Structure to design on (289 residues):
């Protein structure tokens, strides 16, 4: 689902960029060539290594996100779990290449069914936990529905199983701000030449009549790996109904956390609590047999 474009989030985006958080391909990044697109990937190494073989944490960003917009959460979680990590810019975001052809409203399904499996194969990832924020969480759920071989568990942060009226209203507001304010310029610091296309794809899809982020009835029952679903109590893009749908329809273990005093970005707005909860969930599942 979408980037957290609440009034507070918009004000933060309009501030001058903090050092280290503008989009670029750094020496720690690689452009992975999948043939029809190139994806910018950053590998994370935990500060301490206990010598045990552990799963890989794969982070899927929000609807207008990129590697930098995760801030330090991925590295902190890798440190807490002693797992290696992969953070990447999805197609058309940050330092990755544009979509080779227009995906339309199915962009999250295409990412889950086609792009993510190819990326994991190209990186040699054979065992992973997906951690997805917003759109990234929905993509993680879509991917998990086919019970793919590499997948060990899923963590979602403000994922959306359905499109709610509150979401539509928030995206309409974001579109107005993008057209009239400095939001476009600020997002361009992260997305460069991708900024107009990624905003248009995101906003037009979510505002399309009858749009749903996934086939919840068809896909969620196919998820058998453990799921942890987290959402802010004050999420501007969805209600706790999302948690109920996810927990009620998946076929495996699912735990939910509704976080007080928190909007659409739980890992940024309540970082200590969310880091603790996700690490608690991941750690018992992290050791590779």
């Amino acid at each position: 689902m979408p980037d957290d474009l609440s009034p507070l989030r918009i004000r933060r985006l309009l501030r001058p960029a903090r050092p280290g958080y503008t989009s670029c391909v750094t020496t720690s990044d690689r452009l992975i060539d999948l043939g029809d697109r190139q994806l910018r990937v950053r590998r994370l190494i935990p500060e301490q290594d206990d010598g045990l073989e552990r799963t890989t944490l794969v982070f899927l960003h929000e609807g207008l996100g990129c590697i930098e917009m995760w801030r330090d959460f991925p590295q902190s979680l890798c440190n807490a779990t002693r797992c290696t990590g992969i953070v990447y810019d999805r197609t058309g975001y940050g330092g990755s290449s544009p979509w080779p052809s227009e995906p339309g409203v199915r962009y999250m399904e295409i990412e889950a069914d086609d792009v993510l499996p190819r990326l994991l194969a190209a990186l040699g990832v054979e065992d992973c936990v997906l951690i997805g924020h917003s759109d990234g969480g929905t993509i993680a759920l879509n991917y998990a529905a086919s019970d793919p071989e590499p997948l060990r568990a899923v963590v979602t942060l403000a994922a959306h199983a359905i499109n709610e009226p509150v979401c539509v209203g928030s995206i309409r507001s974001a579109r107005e701000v993008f057209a009239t304010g400095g939001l476009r310029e600020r997002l361009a610091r992260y997305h460069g030449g991708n900024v107009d296309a990624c905003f248009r794809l995101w906003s037009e899809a979510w505002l399309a009549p009858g749009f749903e982020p996934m086939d919840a009835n068809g896909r969620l029952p196919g998820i058998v790996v453990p799921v942890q679903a987290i959402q802010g109590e004050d999420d501007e893009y969805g209600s706790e109904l999302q948690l109920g749908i996810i927990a009620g329809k998946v076929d495996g273990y699912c735990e939910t956390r509704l976080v007080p005093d928190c909007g659409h970005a739980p890992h940024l707005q309540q970082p200590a609590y969310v880091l603790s909860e996700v690490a608690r969930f991941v750690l018992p599942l992290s050791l590779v047999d």
Observations:
- DSSP finds eleven helices and eight strands in the chain.
- Confidence is low (pLDDT under 50) at residues 10-25.
- The chain has one domain: 7-285.
- The first strand starts at residue 29 and ends at 33.
